Amino acid sequence: MRTRRQFLRDAGCGLGTAAILSAFDRFSRLDAAVMPDAATDYRALVCIFLFGGNDANNMVIPYDDYASYAKVRGTALNIPKASLLQVNAPSQKAAFGLHPSLAELQTLYNGGHLAVLANVGTLAAPISRAQYQAGAPVPNSLFSHADQQNQWQSSVPRTDDVRANTGWGGRLADVTSSLNSVSFPMVVSVAGVPLFTTGITARPLVPGSGLAGFSTSAVSQARYAALRSILKADGSAGLVGAANTITSTAIDDVAALNTALTQASAFTTAFPGTSLGGQLKKIAQVIASRAALKINRQIFFVSLGGFDTHTDQINTHVTLYRQVSQAMSAFYAATVELGVAADVTSFTLSDFGRTFLPDSGGGTDHAWGSHHVVMGGSVKGGDFYGTFPNLALNGPDDASNEGRWIPSTSVDQYGATLAQWYGVAPSDLATVFPYLSQFGTNHLGFLP
């Protein structure tokens, strides 16, 4: 009899497997069964997706070589050197400046709890400027919001014009479900149902998505009981039975979470009253209920939009970066209070970077490689990882003449480093990241 892990590996990364999605939707829910190889510790990954394409050229700025930055960015986008939040990057043997709105992230960086990953992006294989200009394979539909969001979340850059239908967060949940001691959903999203959270068997739980329109009155509870009875009726018709099962399972999962939240450890950390602050507070509340849920591994997804800064980028970034910095700082503080700071790793993703050269509207255009941050008590913070790009227009790292940096690190390598800390078996890495073998290393060093 094949193990579940063998089945998933044979099924590949789940591209185009609609039949498998229907037939095995409940495979990961071994009702009330305790997994024989369940983990005894707790770990969680928190994906923070910045929708629109974050211009990290103004998030992380060379301090020692500020003149090269200011020469290209000009008056339209230049951040004055005196206002930069200086940080040292030992691996780069250089100093950098964070955007002035990232004060809380500077504190986390200097405290060793936050790292910067430089120039990461979607890649089918390592590629140089000369290879790019000669027509070497690159990810499909570069510079397209929808396509690059899909590729960042799926880690599948080339699919012969057929979009991937599973994300690497979901596939990671597929191959590590046995680490949990119960069959409660491993993946939780407070930002809808993004591709990142969808696996072959894994489906995200969305808190607050329970049934509306029911109260505690006798009449309402009778209606609720009738609905549950209908959902348990004969499911011999395949689609009807599958739909009933999925709906019943979703109702049960949300109800179980709501019950666990009432038993969760209380925390006093104050979160900002912003969109991202509210989302991360909900995640902290779910983490606080981990004992009641009896769960050992969790993957979370939150998001913030507004990063498509074709105009007025200077003012837009002040608000967006402040929201990111304050919300992430509050979340880290909550994990410290809950005693799980070393067990929770948060990381950013985005559509793509943006051009180093400003456009005519006080903003920037769609580009490619970008910088991201990783936060947590286990993160080897206070340093940069990867290779910071050469900032010369038409230079060795520019895919054009406008500063579209060719990534020096792939999404696969980024995700694989996170996945190995989370507990994925080395033999399962290729299932989660199908292009990983194209790259020289599968561990970037920012986590143990």
Describe the structure.
The protein is α/β, with parallel strands linked by helices. The chain contains 14 helices and 11 strands. The chain is globular. Mean pLDDT is 87; it is low at 1-35 and 239-245.
How many structural domains does the protein architecture include? 1
- Overall strand count: 11
Helix content class: 25-40%
Strand content: 5-15%
* Topology pattern, helix = H, strand = E: HHEEHEEHEHHHEHHHHEHEEEEHH
In CATH terms, what is the architecture?
3-Layer(aba) Sandwich
What best-fitting shape do the alpha-carbon axes yield? globular
CATH fold-level topology: Alkaline Phosphatase, subunit A
Task: Indicate the CATH class.
Answer: Alpha Beta
What are its keywords?
448 residues; alpha/beta; Alkaline Phosphatase, subunit A; eight-stranded mixed beta sheet; three-stranded antiparallel beta sheet; 13% strand; disordered N terminus
Tell me briefly what this model is.
With 448 residues, the chain is α/β, with parallel strands linked by helices. The chain contains 14 helices and 11 strands.
Helix-strand layout with pairing:
Elements: H1 4-10, H2 18-23, E1 43-50, E2 60-62, H3 66-77, E3 85-89, E4 94-98, H4 103-110, E5 114-121, H5 129-133, H6 145-154, H7 168-176, E6 187-189, H8 218-231, H9 238-262, H10 275-288, H11 290-293, E7 297-304, H12 313-337, E8 344-350, E9 370-376, E10 384-386, E11 409-410, H13 411-422, H14 429-432
Parallel strand pairs: 1-7, 1-8, 5-10, 5-11, 6-7
Antiparallel strand pairs: 2-4, 3-4, 5-9, 8-9
